[in-house]
Write a structure and sequence with these properties.
The complex is a heterodimer.
Chain A lengths: L1 E2 L6 H13 L4 E6 L4 H15 L2 E6 L8 H5 L1 H4 L7 E4 L3 E3 L3 H11 L3 E7 L7 E5 L5 E6 L8 E9 L14 H11 L3 E5 L4 E3 L3 H18 L12 E2 L3 E3 L4 E2 L4 E2 L3 E3 L4 E2 L4 E3 L1 E3 L4 E2 L4 E3 L2 E2 L4 E2 L4 E3 L3 E2 L4 E2 L4 E3 L11
Helix pairs in contact in A: 1-2
Chain B lengths: L8 E8 L20 E2 L2 E2 L2 H7 L5 E8 L3 H15 L3 E5 L5 H8 L1 H4 L6 E6 L2 E3 L3 H11 L3 E7 L9 E5 L6 E6 L8 E9 L2 H12 L11 H5 L12 H9 L5 E5 L4 E3 L3 H18 L14 E2 L3 E3 L4 E2 L4 E2 L3 E3 L4 E2 L4 E7 L4 E2 L4 E7 L4 E2 L4 E3 L9 E3 L4 E2 L4 E3 L2 E2 L4 E2 L3 E2 L2 E2 L1
Parallel strand pairs in B: 1-4, 1-6, 4-5, 8-12, 14-17, 15-18, 16-19, 17-20, 18-20, 19-21, 20-22, 21-23, 22-24, 22-25, 23-26, 24-27, 25-28, 26-29, 27-30, 28-31
Antiparallel strand pairs in B: 2-3, 6-11, 7-13, 8-11, 9-10
Helix pairs in contact in B: 3-8
Classes of the chains: A alpha/beta, B alpha/beta.
Pfam family, one (chain B): GMPPB_C
Family (chain B): Belongs to the transferase hexapeptide repeat family.
Protein name (chain B): Nucleotidyl transferase domain-containing protein
């Protein structure tokens, strides 16, 4: 499993690991690059305890592409049992029907199984062209003409023999490894039920969050917040139990509030992520944006239009921060 | 000329007409510019109140070419309030700043005044009129101009003049020169003796004889000579320039503030100046509050007594709120003019903006101006509705528009 960018929501990783546990996985290897292990270290310790699983790291010292890290972690991935192993992309959010995937993999006797998902604009991604119902024929990267509407969802179940195909160098799994397996007619694809979102871009992250909250509403509504007392909640809102919400607020729809956040009175939040330790001061309004850990949004301030505030950013009182034609990077104050 | 207790003074305030003050749109679409509120009072109210301080003031005339009915109510109300007769005189057509004065000379001279003040309605200053009169009496000329030093870079937007440092005589005058003449400019406030009428009459009759040395526009050149009305006389070019250096005109320099209210953005700036002047001259006009029973008030703020402000709102500095406006909980107002019947809902923010009559600002929304941006101050015309959470930045919104998406740097028709 690979960690890509610094602000990937820790809750997503937890969801993935929980899904893995539910499918019978007992050991997880986090494949990370050289940049920010410390962010993950703390969460990992928590999850190990909470979920009673073994979580280790495999850290690349040079870029190895999308397949190389698997070769790097080879020793951790293979044991004598010869059982297949999951590979998950952490920039993805979906429902993780992993038990079904194990069954699918067994039924087809495949060497490698991948999840695919149906999208409206496939040419943004790599399209997976299927032969019969489930066998993969080829991959077409960002096609100009329509060749299919299923794309690689970033979830794989691979037999250990796949590792024999991967050299320890920068390799792309979609461009080099999978096409080879497909040509040998040993690659099968399962269509992912439910929602799927690539959350690499802030805008898509927020869309994915909306989809995820919608999924919770249907399957685990107890995790969502309901109005109580003076504060008003609209639509799907998830808030950590240690978060404090003031009076005369209007929260939601589609809001996630992290641990230890303080939302002062008269605040409006919608379509946004508020990470751990954030303080949103009185009368502010945050919409369609991500507020990073330990940041502050000043009183009467307005954060809008896919703004991303990194860690420890302080928006002064009564200012407007928004993205206009080009994205702006806000320096740490 | 000794000052006699019988000597009466008359003031004339030029208010212009619909073809003037077009830069003030959209705010002047519904109301004549002279009646637009600055610091809670109609623009023309400020020079009128200043005239009240002139000793032996007999009459105030408002001269312009708006319809009479537009000023009828205001004029009768202000006459009652100030206990000074105020009359609106309508020009049938524009006569120019001096021509207008001349056109009504009989009425103006009715009280046989010894001195006549001429003020432009859209001037924002401290109007040191009694001091100007006293100085004028000493100088003994036919007129005295109020002048002020400005920054050399901005001087060429105005009438630049040169004055004798000892006698204060006006030596040279030129309107909007191309090259730098002087950093002393004409404020648009004058005091004259009745000889001014003779001077204006002489200009009209000499017009045909004098060669026109300034550049004329193509439009003017194509007019047959008879169509240039003899009675269109501009004070600056036609009176001040020729009379400069002839020991007829003098200057009085003010060290206080001075601005011209040409654009809606300037009205916000001038509102600030007059509000700070109230702090010194009539502090009872300003609002105060500490958030317990009434809203928190910071700096100079005017709130009409009929306006309703929630105690959790925070108002100021430099805010004027007109009659029957409603300001909801948690609202923040900074540097703005809120006109009659406006409703501002919870937690909204208005800063560097003018919100027109009957407009509404939704919950958590913002009307915000940015001074050095292209359009500057945000102006909402009358009956504009800004929906919840919408942000309007540096934009001008014409009347009756509903905004349901955020806008920036735009003119919304």
């Amino acid at each position: 499993m690979r960690q890509k960018s610094v602000w990937t929501h820790p809750d997503c990783t937890e969801t993935e690991i929980e899904a893995l546990k539910a499918a019978g996985v007992t050991e997880v290897v986090l494949a990370i690059n050289h940049q920010q292990p410390e962010v993950m270290l703390n969460f990992v310790k928590e999850y190990e305890k909470k979920l009673d699983m073994k979580i280790t790291f495999s850290q690349e010292t040079e870029p190895l592409g999308t397949a190389g890290p698997l070769a790097l972690a080879r020793d951790k991935l293979i044991d004598e049992s010869g059982k297949p192993f999951f590979v998950l992309n952490s920039d993805v959010i979906c429902e993780y029907p992993l038990l079904e995937m194990i069954q699918f993999h067994k039924n087809h006797g495949a060497e490698a199984s991948i999840m695919v998902t149906k999208v409206d604009d496939p040419s943004k991604y790599g399209v997976v062209v299927m032969e019969e119902e489930a066998r993969v024929e080829s991959f077409v990267e960002k096609p100009i003409h329509f060749v299919g509407d299923k794309i690689n969802a970033g979830i794989y179940l691979l037999n250990p023999s796949v590792l024999d195909r991967i050299e320890l160098r920068r390799t792309s799994i979609e461009k080099e490894i999978f096409p080879k397996i497909a040509s040998e007619k040993k690659l099968y694809a399962m269509v992912l039920p439910g929602f799927w979102m690539d959350i690499g871009q802030p805008k898509d992250y927020l869309t994915g969050q909306r989809m995820y909250l919608n999924y919770l509403r249907k399957n685990a509504p107890g995790k969502l917040l309901v109005s109580s007392g003076d504060d008003v909640v609209i639509g799907n809102v998830m808030a950590d139990e240690t978060a404090v919400i003031g009076e005369r607020c209007l929260i939601g729809p589609d809001v996630v509030i992290g641990a230890g956040c303080v939302i002062e009175s008269g605040v409006r939040l919608f379509g946004c992520t508020v990470m751990r330790g954030v303080r949103i001061k009185e009368h502010a309004c945050v919409s369609d944006s991500i507020v990073g850990w330990d940041s502050t949004v000043g009183s009467w301030a307005r954060v809008a239009d896919i703004t991303v505030l990194g860690k420890d950013v302080h928006v002064a009182d009564a200012e407007v921060i928004q993205m206009s034609a080009k994205p702006e990077i806000i320096q740490k104050v | 000329m000794g000052s006699s207790m019988e000597e009466k003074v008359v003031a004339v305030i030029m208010v212009g007409g619909p073809t003037k003050g077009t830069r003030f749109r959209p705010l002047s679409l519904n109301i004549p510019k002279p009646l637009f509120p600055i610091a809670g009072q109609p623009m023309v109210h400020h020079p009128i109140s200043a005239c009240k301080r002139i000793p032996n003031l007999a009459q105030i005339y408002l001269v312009g070419f708006y319809e009479e009915r537009e000023f009828a109510l205001y004029v009768s109300a202000i006459s009652n309030e100030l206990k000074v007769p105020v009359r609106y005189l309508r020009e049938d057509k524009p006569h120019g700043s001096a021509g207008g004065l001349y056109h009504f000379r009989n009425l103006i001279m009715e009280d046989d005044p010894s001195h006549i003040f001429l003020l432009n309605c859209d001037v924002c200053c401290s109007f040191p009129l009694p001091e100007m009169l006293e100085a004028h009496r000493k100088y003994g000329g036919i007129g005295t101009l109020l002048v002020i030093k400005v920054s050399p870079e901005s001087a060429n937007q105005f009438g630049e003049l040169v004055a004798d440092p000892d006698t204060t005589e006006l030596l040279h005058y030129t309107e909007k020169p191309e090259t730098f003449v002087s950093d002393l400019v004409n404020c648009g406030v004058y005091v004259f003796t009745p000889d001014i009428f003779t001077a204006i009459r002489d200009v009209s009759s000499q017009r045909k004889d004098t060669a026109i040395l300034r550049r004329v526009s193509s439009f003017e050149a194509l007019q047959p000579a008879t169509r240039i009305p003899a009675d269109f006389v501009r004070l600056d070019q036609d009176i001040l320039s020729p009379l400069a250096g002839k020991k007829q005109l003098y200057t009085y320099e003010t060290l206080d503030f001075w601005e011209q209210i040409k654009s809606p953005g300037m009205s916000l700036r001038c509102s600030e100046l007059y509000l700070s002047q109230f702090r010194l001259t009539s502090p009872q006009m300003l609002a105060s509050g500490d958030g317990t029973k009434t809203a928190i008030v910071i700096g100079d703020v005017y709130i009409h007594h009929s306006a309703k402000i929630h105690p959790t709102a925070k108002i100021g500095p430099n805010v004027s709120i007109s009659a029957n406006a409603r300001v909801g909980p948690g609202v923040r107002l900074i540097s703005c003019i809120i006109l009659d019947d406006v409703e501002i809902m919870e937690n909204a923010v208005v800063t560097n903006a003018i919100v027109g009559w009957k407009s509404s600002i939704g919950r958590w929304s913002r009307a915000e101006g940015v001074y050095n941006s292209k359009l500057g101050v945000t102006i909402l015309g009358d009956s504009v509705a800004v929906e919840d959470e919408v942000v309007v930045t540096s934009s001008i919104v014409l009347p009756n528009k509903t905004l349901n998406v955020s806008v920036q740097d735009e003119i919304i028709l």
